[in-house]
Amino acid sequence: MDQANTRQTAPRGPKEDLARIARNGDLVMYVTLVAAFAACIALGLVYDDLALGLPYACAVLVIGSGFYFMGRGTVWGWAGLVSCNVAAVTLHMQLSRGLTELHFGVFVLLGLMLVYRDWRPIVLGATLFAVQHIALDRMMALHFGVYCTAEANFPRILLHAAYVIVQTSIEVYLAIGLRSSSIEASELAGLVRHVNRRSAICLDVSSVAVNSALACSLKDSLTRVQHAMAEVSQAADAVKQSSAEIASGTLDLSQRTERQAISLQQTAASIEQINGGVRETADTTSQTGTLAVSASTAASSGSEAMNRVVETMSSIDESSTRINDITSVIDSIAFQTNLLALNAAVEAARAGEAGRSFAVVAGEVRSLAQRSASAAREIKQLLAESMSRVKMGNALVGKAGGVMTGIVVQTSRVSQLIGQMMNSAERQSAGIGRVSDAVSQLDSVTQQNAALVEESAAAASSLAAQADRLHRVVQQFSLTDDDVPVRMARRGRAR
User: Fold this and answer.
1) Are residues 106 and 164 in contact, defined by beta-carbon separation less than 8 angstroms?
2) How far apart are CA 468 and CA 465, in angstroms?
3) What is residue 262's predicted lDDT score, i.e. its pLDDT?
4) d(Cα 157, Cα 198) in Å, to the nearest integer?
5) What is the 3-state secondary structure (H, E, C) of 88-139?
6) Is the pLDDT of residue 127 over 50?
7) Which residues touch 388 (CB under 8 Å, ≥6 apart)?
8) What distance in Å separates the CA atoms of residue 157 and residue 130, rounded to the nearest whole number?
9) d(CA 9, CA 198)
10) pLDDT over threshold 50, residue 486
11) pTM of the model
12) Interior/surface letters 277-290, b for 16+ CB within 10 angstroms, e for the rest
C-alpha cells in the first residue's frame, strides 16, 4: 500500500514525459506501418503484383513489429519504425509504377513524424527519402527495373527534394518548438503534480528541477508563495498564541472586574451605611451640643446662685459676729447687774428691816441677772456653734463655688469641643457623601468596564477562532517536501 502511494505521489519529470511522447510516436508510426502494409496489399491487387508486394510488405511489417515491441520508446525503436515506414512508402511507389500521387505519402509521413516532437526522426526520414529518390531515379536511368517516378527525371527529383527540404526545415523548427513546449508543459505539469497533493498543497519545490523560462518563473512564484505562507504560518501561530493569551488574560480580567464590581457594590452599600451613621452621629452631636449649651447655662446660673449663697453666708457670719458682740454686752450688763444686786443685797442687809423689801428686789434682780447671764452664755455658746458652722458652710460654699466655676469652665470647654465635633461630623458627612458619589460613579464605570471586558473577551475568543481557522487553512499547505527521501530512494533503486 505504501509503495502504491509512493508510485502515485512520485512526480513525473520531462524525461518521463518525453519517453511517453516517444512511445506514443512509436505507436503512431506502428499504426501507420500497419496501414502502409494494407496499402501494399491493395496496390499489389490493383497492379497485379501481389507476389512482389506481399513478401516485401510482410517483411517490412515483421521488422517494424520487432522494433516496436522490443524497442518502443528507445532511439533505435523510433529509428527502425521510421526506416520501415520509409521502406513501405518506397514499396508503394514500386508497386504503383512510380505513380506521382503516391509521392504525397512522403509528405504525409514526414508530417506524421511531428508526433515525436523531435527533429531527429524528421531529419532521418527526410534523409532516407532523399537517398531513396536519388538512388531509385539513378537506378531507373540505368534501367534496373525499379520505380520512383514514371520515368527517370533527375531535375524533378531535385524539385521534390527542394520541397522535402522546405517541409523538413519547417517541421524541424516546429519539432524543436513542440519539444520545448513539451518540456515546458512537462515541467509545469511536474510542478503542478508536486504542488497538488492529496494530503496538503506542497509549496516546497526546491527538489523539482526545471529549465524552461515559464517553469522557472512558476517555481520562483511558488517559492515566494512558500516564503509568504511560511510567514503567514508563523504569524498565524503567533496570532493564535497571542489571542489565546489575550483571551486568557481578558477572561481573568473579566473575572477580576466582576469581583471588583461586586466589592465596589458592597463598598458603596457600606459607605452608604457609614454615611447614614455619620448623619445620625452628627444629629446626635447637635443634640448633645444643645444639651451642653443648656448645661453650661445652668452651670453658670448655679455658679451665680452659689456666689449669692457665699455672699449670704458672709452676711450671716457678720450678723453672727454682731450678735456675739451684743451677747457679750448683755453678759457684761448681767454681770454688772449681778454685782449691783449683790451690793444692793449687802446694803439691804445692813439696813435691816428697812431694807428687807429692797433686799427682795435685789434678790430678784440678782436672779434675773444670773438668768440673763446664763441665757447670754447659752446664746453665746449657740452663736459660737453657729459661727463655727457658718464658717464651715462658708468654706464649703466657697469650695462649691470653685467647683461650680470649674464645672462652668469644663462645661464651656465641652460645649466648644462638641461644637468642633459637630463641625467635624458635618465635614465628615459631606466628605463621605462625596466619597459615596465617587464610589457610585466608580461602580458605574466598573460595570461599564466589565461589559467592555466581556466584549473584549468575546472579541479575543473570536480572534482565537479566526486564528485557529487561519492556522487550519495554512496547514493545507505543506512548506516542506516530505517525499524527497522517498523519491531519492526510488531513483536509487531505479539506477
Assistant:
1) yes
2) 5
3) 80
4) 59
5) HHHHHHHHCCCCHHHHHHHHHHHHHHHHHCCHHHHHHHHHHHHHHHHHHHHH
6) yes
7) none
8) 9
9) 9
10) no
11) 0.53
12) ebbebbeebbebbe
- The cell numbers describing 295, all together, are 448645661
Q: What is the mean pLDDT of residues 304-332?
A: 74
* SS3 assignment for 265-325: HHHHHHHHHHHHHHHHHHHHHHHHHHHHHHHHHHHHHHHHHHHHHHHHHHHHHHHHHHHHH
- The one-letter amino acid code at 401 reads G
261 residue type, one letter: A
Q: Give long-range contacts, CB 8 A cutoff, 24+ apart: 466-470.
A: 467/236, 467/239, 467/240, 467/243, 468/240, 470/232, 470/236, 470/239, 470/240
Selected residue with higher pLDDT from 313 and 164: 164
- Burial of 67 from C-beta contacts in 10 A (0-12 / 13-18 / 19+): buried
Closest CA to 64 of 94, 92, 28: 28
pLDDT at 71 over 80: yes
The rounded distance, in Å, linking the Cα atoms of 231 and 474 is 10
User: Looking at the predicted structure, is the pLDDT value of residue 487 above 70?
Assistant: no
Nearest to 291, CA basis, from 118, 447, 414? 414
Amino acid, single-letter form, for residue 138? R
Tell me, what's the pLDDT at 482? 61
The average confidence (pLDDT) of the chain is 78
Buried b (16+ CB within 10 A) or exposed e, 368-392: ebeebbeebeebbeebeebbeebee
The full DSSP string for 377-397 is HHHHHHHHHHHHHHHHHHHHH
* pLDDT above 80: residue 4: no
Main-chain dihedrals φ then ψ at residue 194, nearest 5 degrees: -65, -40
Question: For residue 281, what are the CA distances in angstroms to 90, 188, 417, 454?
Answer: 134, 93, 15, 42
